[in-house]
Design goal:
The complex is a heterotrimer. Chain A is of the alpha/beta class. Chain A has 16 helices and 12 strands. Chain A starts with 9 loop residues before the first helix and ends with a helix. In chain A, strand 9, helix 11 (222-237) and strand 10 form a beta-alpha-beta unit. Chain B contains 1 helix and 5 strands. In chain B, strand 4 (50-54) and strand 5 form a beta hairpin. By secondary structure, chain C is α+β, with helices and mostly antiparallel strands. Chain C has 2 domains: 7-149, PurM-like, N-terminal domain (60s Ribosomal Protein L30, Chain: A), CATH 3.30.1330.10; 157-324, Phosphoribosyl-aminoimidazole Synthetase, Chain A, domain 2 (Alpha-Beta Complex). Chain C contains 9 helices and 13 strands. Chain C has helices at residues 14-28, 31-34, 68-81, 102-119, 174-180, 200-209, 224-236, 251-260, 282-290, and strands at 48-56, 62-63, 66-67, 86-97, 123-131, 139-149, 165-168, 214-218, 239-243, 274-277, 299-305, 312-315, 321-324. Classes of the chains: A alpha/beta, B alpha+beta, C alpha+beta. Chains in contact: A-B, A-C, B-C. The interface between A and C is large, with 52 and 33 residues.
Chain lengths: 362, 90, 336
């Protein structure tokens, strides 16, 4: 695949690793914010190629992982209504709430359909006018515009049996909150490349200004990630933190203004709970008044409940990068990808799932 | 958190002149084709251009010139040629 | 003939007999089946008996590259072949949903007959049941098969030894990605098609080349190559080291996997065979595999070592290493 394969080149990866080994003199702690980075690092086996002095900490950038169990319970309550067909990205299917997962709800008779695109959910609603079709709206800056465009399309076409369950989140507030945590020791951030397509690399500038963090916007292929780590090591060791865009083939400073416009048209920032991190001010998105009729929770009267995090689970600390999966007493024992307890095990890009699946060599 | 891949535009469908006839691009990667929506890109892509595809939408066009340059830069870093952070291709 | 399957078709009475005559015997006829006795009695054979069974519930029942019928024939033939057996006959059990279109059933039976003819393995006994609408999904098929294994042949997962070479008979993940993308909401275009095909001719060729050198054969169906290799690693307590770059894949399959975040190592194959062989015969066996049409894309993908006992280790395209764990749940498309 063009613009993919050349960035996976064994030769180039090897050489970049050599460069990284040569230039790294001090210990550096880098947080990869995005779960897709975590996945890619494991999938390509990059972790054990890095110098020992470069420590990678997985951040809160997995929308599935950070969706609180009360919201999952809301999804399940909705799915259990006989008149409702729930549509979702495949990622959400196995995520456990306090009342089980969507997979279990489906086994008990709920109508749950997996879609690749929110637009597929709209097509389904159009084909089945007698059903109430609800899309479980999760995701960060990258995904939210696709949902906004779908809601606008539903409005244009006058499809009145399509709804969303709004649970979208934005990245800057939790990063801001994390960096204020004195327990968290991070020197640099591997900034999420696909979020940055929408938000622009400038959206992370505040982390440089406010916290003196080194930042590098990174793509998802092995050489993209290594190049960004090289940038971070140079910034950190040279004590010149800045934001370097290492994913210039798709990311600009200002981002995708049109996509953000669509999001702003229908969504408005709301305070929002993150699994493991608690409530963070203006870190979520709710539907604006004018689009409230698309809100499944309002139309179908779903009241979100606060449910407790599972006992013994250290996902909160893992999401903050304070401890690693192996420090959790449940990891690999009560909590496995086949029967996940905590959010980090649930999604295949979750820190614990990635460690469980790929990490045994480290 | 966001899986997205580059795919090449092979066809533009629909005229966009009515609400029910949206403009759609057929994109291709190694023979695998998919119809995707163009609602989120700020300009009409040309045939042969690469788009970044996420959840059935193009979220941006790929800057091929930058891609060539950044690949060159990658090779330079790989061959250990010093380059300032925030340097020439940001 | 009726247009739809009725409960009467499974009653055992005249309507059932009509279906047997007009459909099953019409396409599947052979001297043993034609007798319509309660059991097939087969002529004596010399050797060890191999016996296998599998059920098929694939959705959709018709997919690019095949349908549930030929899949059921090839699947059981392949299970027998993986033990070094020469398949000699099959049973065919059908569970039909009331209201299933007879036209579609005929198409499936026709394709079963074609697959049996091609493979040279007849259906010698069968059974049909009809369940009320909604109690099954269109059609479920069970096939069992008997094969003959030469007395001195012993091909099992436990035979793999350190130093052995791992070969794969062709491209990965074709069937799995085809089935997944045939759902309406996950559709992609392109030349994706199932690889369903019988492997016993390929196996015959391999066994003729170097019978004692073949230690293990497996067809990586559900769970994919990753899970199959994990099973072999566990049962031998050896390490399976494979190279991602060496694993052949169709471009469109790989692209579809990238688009939907699927790992091709866990997607099903229905016409591929994993062969583990003594290193000195590996090249000869590879040449034998490549000499038949179902094995033209065969290649060496790795070796058996003692490095990480009981584990599968993949050298990635970019030169890193990672563990390959067995599949932990149905592969699902993801956007994350």
């Amino acid at each position: 695949m063009k613009y993919v394969d050349e960035y996976r080149s064994r030769e180039l990866v090897d050489k970049l690793c050599n460069t990284l080994h040569r230039i790294t003199t001090d210990p550096v702690r880098v947080m990869e914010v995005c779960g897709t980075h975590t996945m890619s690092i494991f999938r390509h086996g990059l972790r054990d190629m890095l110098p020992d002095k470069v420590q990678l900490i997985s951040g809160p950038g997995c929308p599935v992982c950070v969706t609180p169990s009360g919201v999952i319970d809301g999804f399940i309550e909705l799915a259990s209504r006989p008149e409702v067909t729930v549509t979702t990205f495949g990622d959400m299917i196995r995520v456990p709430g306090a009342r089980g997962s969507l997979a279990e709800a489906r086994a008990a008779g709920a109508k749950v359909e997996i879609v690749y695109s929110p637009m597929d959910a709209l097509v389904l609603a159009k084909e089945r006018p007698y059903r109430l079709v609800v899309f479980l709206s999760v995701g960060f800056e990258t995904t939210t515009p696709t949902i906004a465009a779908t809601v606008l399309e539903a409005e244009r076409q006058g499809i009145d049996n399509f709804f969303i369950f709004p649970a979208n989140k934005v990245m800057p507030p939790p990063l801001d909150a994390l960096m204020q945590d004195p327990e968290l020791q991070v020197d640099g951030l591997l900034c999420p490349g696909h979020v940055s397509i929408i938000s622009g690399s400038d959206s992370f500038q505040f982390l440089v200004d406010k916290y003196g963090l080194a930042c590098a916007v990174a793509g998802f292929e092995p050489t993209d990630i290594l190049r960004a780590i090289v940038s971070l090591v140079r910034q950190i060791q040279g004590k010149r933190p800045t934001i370097e865009n290492c994913y210039g083939r798709v990311v600009t400073r200002k981002g995708n203004v049109k996509a953000r416009g669509l999001v702003e048209k229908i969504f408005t920032p709301v305070d929002c709970r993150w699994r493991g991190l608690g409530v963070i001010e203006k870190s979520g998105l709710g539907l604006r008044k004018a689009y409230e009729h698309f809100d499944a929770t309002k139309r179908l009267n779903i009241t979100p409940v606060e449910s407790a995090e599972p006992k013994g689970c250290r996902c909160g600390e893992i999401l903050k990068g304070i401890c690693g999966p192996r420090d959790c007493p449940l990891f690999g024992r009560r909590c496995t990808p086949g029967s996940p307890v905590g959010p980090c095990m649930v999604s295949s890009e979750g820190t614990c799932a990635a460690w469980h699946r790929y990490g045994g060599l480290v | 958190m966001c899986l997205a891949i580059p795919m090449q535009v092979v066809e533009i469908k629909g005229s966009g002149d009515s609400l029910l006839n949206p403009i759609i691009a057929v994109v291709n990667a190694d023979g695998m084709k998919k119809e995707i929506r163009l609602d989120l890109v700020d300009r009409m892509p040309e045939i042969g251009e690469y788009l970044i595809i996420h959840a059935g939408f193009a979220i941006n066009c790929l800057d091929t010139e930058n891609a060539e340059k950044s690949l060159q830069l990658l090779r330079e870093i790989a061959n250990d040629i010093e380059e300032e952070p925030g340097g020439k291709f940001t | 003939m009726d247009k739809y399957i009725l409960l009467d078709h499974g009653s055992g009475g005249l309507v059932s007999q009509n279906l047997i005559g007009s459909l099953f015997l019409k396409y599947l006829k052979n001297p043993v089946l034609n007798q319509l006795e309660d059991a097939a009695v087969l002529p004596p054979e010399h050797g060890q008996l191999a016996f296998s069974t599998d059920s098929y519930v694939v959705d959709p029942i018709f997919f690019p590259g095949g349908n549930i019928g030929e899949l059921a024939v090839n699947g059981t033939i392949n299970d027998l072949a993986m033990r070094g057996a020469r398949p000699i006959c099959l049973s065919l059990g059908l569970i039909l949903e009331e209201g299933f279109a007879v036209e579609e059933l005929e198409e499936i039976i026709k394709s079963i007959a074609n697959a049996c003819d091609y493979a040279g393995v007849p259906v010698v006994t069968g059974d049909t049941k009809v369940v009320p609408k909604g109690k099954a999904d269109k059609v479920f098929i069970n096939t069992s098969g008997i094969g003959i294994v030469e007395v001195d042949i012993n091909v099992t997962a436990r035979q793999a030894r350190s130093g052995d070479i791992i070969l794969l008979s062709g491209t990965l993940a074709d069937h799995g990605i085809t089935i997944l993308t045939s759902r309406a909401s996950l559709q992609v275009d392109g030349n994706l098609k199932s690889d369903t095909r019988p492997l016993h001719f390929l196996v015959k060729k391999i066994m003729a080349e170097a019978p004692g050198a073949v230690h293990t054969m497996r067809d990586p169906t559900r769970g994919g190559l990753g899970t199959t290799l994990s099973e072999i690693a566990k049962s031998t307590n050896l390490c399976m080291e494979i190279d991602e770059q060496a694993i052949p894949m169709h471009g469109e399959v790989r692209a579809a996997c990238e688009l939907m975040g699927l790992d091709p190592l866990y997607l099903a194959n229905e016409g591929k065979c994993l062969v583990i062989t003594a290193p000195e015969e590996a090249e000869a066996i590879l040449a034998a595999m490549c000499s038949v049409s179902e094995g033209v894309d065969s290649c060496i993908i790795g070796k058996v070592t003692k490095k990480y006992p009981g584990r599968v280790v993949l050298t990635t395209t970019s030169g890193g290493h990672r563990l390959v764990e067995p599949l932990s749940g149905e592969p699902l498309p993801r956007i994350c």
